[in-house]
Amino acid sequence: MEAKILSKEKKELKIEILGDKHTVTNLLRAKLVDEGDVDVAGYDKVHPLENKAIFVLKTKSKDASTVLKKAINDIEKELDSASKELARIK
Q1: CB of 37 within 8 A of CB of 47?
Q2: Distance (Å, whole) CA 33 – CA 61
Q3: Which long-range contacts (CB under 8 A, 24 or more apart) does 8-13 make?
Q4: What's the rounded Cα separation, in Å, for the pair 49 and 27?
Q5: Measured between alpha carbons, how far is residue 55 from residues 9, 10, 17, 81, 84 in Å?
Q6: Distance (Å, rounded) from C-alpha 41 to C-alpha 44?
Q7: How many angstroms separate the CA atoms of 66 and 54, rounded?
Q8: Quick one: pLDDT at residue 90?
Q9: Which of 10, 11, 16, 55 is the most buried if burial means most Cβ atoms within 10 Å?
Q10: Which positions ≥6 away from 25 have C-beta within 8 Å?
Q11: Which domains does the chain possess?
Q12: How confident is the model at residue 49, as a pLDDT?
């Protein structure tokens, strides 16, 4: 998967994400929607046959880059915890 910043402002980010159908983009969107300062978090698939999406994040007051990084870190922690729990099941 590859990500490219298309535009960056204090309270708004627009990112092109390549190589993901809906898995990561939807997980990230769901995590960001739970953040209280997020005004908009969503993505648009450029074309159904392309694995490319444009992800948009708009915040009310916080720095959008900081909010995005926190969401990614939270997702990593949750996935790591889930992986450890599932590894115990045999």
Answers
A1: no
A2: 15
A3: 8/64, 8/65, 9/64, 10/63, 10/64, 11/58, 11/59, 11/60, 11/61, 11/62, 11/63, 11/64, 12/56, 12/57, 12/58, 12/59, 12/64, 13/55, 13/56, 13/57, 13/64, 13/65, 13/68
A4: 20
A5: 14, 16, 7, 26, 30
A6: 11
A7: 19
A8: 67
A9: 55
A10: 17, 43, 53, 55
A11: 2-88 (3.30.1360.10)
A12: 86
Tens digit of pLDDT at every position of the chain (90 positions): 899 999 999 999 999 999 988 888 999 999 999 998 999 999 999 888 888 999 999 999 999 999 999 999 999 999 999 999 898 886
